[in-house]
Amino acid sequence: MNTLSKSSSVFAEAKLYIPGGVNSPVRSFRSVGGNPPFITRGEGSKLYDLDGNNYIDYVLSYGPLLLGHAHPVVTEAVQEAAAKGTSFGAPTGAEVALAKLVCELVPSMDMVRMVNSGTEATMSAIRLARAYTGRDCIVKFIGCYHGHSDALLVHAGSGATTFGVPDSPGVTKGTAETTLSVPFNDLPALENVFAEKGKEIAAVIMEPTPGNMGLVLPKDGYLQAIRKLTKKYGSLLIIDEVMSGFRSAQGGSQSLYHIEPDITCLGKVIGGGLPVAAYGGKREIMNWVSPVGPMYQAGTLSGNPLAMAAGIAALTYMKENDVCATLTKRNAELTDALKAAADAAGVPVQVPRLGSMFTVFFSEKEVTNYEDATACNLDAFRIYFHSMLEQGVYLPPSQFETNFISLAHSDEDFAKTAAAAKVAFTKVAE
Length: 430
Ligand code: PLP
Description:
- Pfam families: Aminotran_3.
- Keywords: Cytoplasm, Isomerase, Porphyrin biosynthesis, Pyridoxal phosphate.
- It comes from Succiniclasticum ruminis.
- One of its GO terms (biological process) is protoporphyrinogen IX biosynthetic process.
- By secondary structure, the protein is of the alpha/beta class.
- It has two domains: 5-70 and 322-429, Aspartate Aminotransferase, domain 1, CATH 3.90.1150; 72-320, 3-Layer(aba) Sandwich (Aspartate Aminotransferase, domain 2), CATH 3.40.640.
- The chain contains 14 helices and 16 strands.
- The strands form four sheets. The protein has a seven-stranded mixed β-sheet with strand order 4-12-11-10-9-5-8, sandwiched between helices.
- Strand 13 (353-354) and strand 14 form a beta hairpin.
- Helix 2 (72-82) runs antiparallel to helix 10.
- The radius of gyration is 21 Å and the shape is globular.
- The protein starts with a helix and ends with a helix.
- Bound molecules: pyridoxal-5'-phosphate.
C-alpha cells in the first residue's frame, strides 16, 4: 500500500497558506476524503509523488495532456521559446501560427482570440454574444460547467423558465437573473424557455458532450434540434469545447455531431499543458471584438510565447500522427476491460466513452443528465477511487469528473489498470 506521509505533512502546511491547501478545489479530495498526493513530476502516463509512489494518471491535468506528461516535442518547444524571452506584450508570429492551426482544425472558426483560461474564453464568448445580439439572457444546462465567471455560476430556480439563482455567495442576484438553466437532453424544457423568453436570449452555451457531471452523451438529434431552435429565435449557439476539443475527436464534438456553432470555446489541449484557451467563430461575429469592434476584451499574458509554442507543438503532433483516432480505439480497449471487471464483480456501472474520455458511473441505468449523475452510488465510487489510488492508479477524485487517456498510456498501463479495477470492484461488492 502506498504511504502518503510526506504528502500529508506538506498538505497540512499548505492549508495554512492556501485556502484548503489547493489552488483549485477538486484537488483537495474533499468529495472522496483522505489526503492528496503531492506531485513532484510527471513523465509519459505516470505521476510521481513526494513519498516515492508512482501512479498511472487518468486525470492528465483535467484534460490538457493529450500526449502525456513532458512529451519531448512539447518540452523542447517550450524550452526553445523560453530561451528567447517569456513575454513581450507585442504580437508574435507564433500567435498567428496557432490561430491558423486552430481555424484549420475547427472549420466553424474563421477567427480566434487567445486567452489564458477556459473561464476567460466562455466569459468573453458570452459578452460577445450579448454585444452582437443586443440581448441580455443566456441559457445554460444544469450540470455543465463553463468555468467560474459570475454569469455561469448559476443554477436553475424553481420551474423551468424562472430566473437563475447564484451558485456561490458573491454572485449577485442581478447577474443570476439573466442566466436561465435547463436540464441536459430535455428538448421540451429548452423549447419552453425559448417560447417564453426567446427574444431576450442572446445565446445558448453548452458542452455538446458534457464532461463536468462525468461524461454524458447527447440523445440522437438533440444537438441538431438546439441548433435549429437558436436559429429560429436569432440567438447564438456557443459550443464550449474547452474539454471536448481535440479529445472527443480532432474537430471536437461539433465535428462528430455535425453542428456548426456561432462561437466555439477551446482550452486545455490547445495549450499542450500551458495556460491557453480561446474563443472564436464566424468572422462577422468576431469582428465585434476590440480593437476592430466595440466589444472589449484584453489580456497582459494572452498569446504568451511559451504557451503558443506548447500549443503549436502539441496540436501539430496530434494532427500529423492522427492521435485522436488512435486514442479513440485505445479507449474502447480500456473501457471494455473496466466494464468487464465490474460485471465480473457484480457491480452495476455505466461506462460511457468518447474519443479519449470516459467515466465509470456507479449506476444501474444510463446517465443522461445531472439528476441521473447525482443519483449514482457515491459510496461505491469512494471505495473504488481509494482502492485504485492505493494500487497506483490516479483517477479524478470525484464521480462527476471525466477520466482521460493519453498517447503515452501503454498496453501494460491498461493491463495494470484493469487488474487494479478487478480488486477495486470486488471491494465495492463486499
Ligand atoms: N469549460 C469547460 C467545458 C471546462 O471543462 C472547464 C474546466 O474544466 C472550463 C470551461 C473552465 O476552464 P478553466 O479551468 O481553464 O478556467
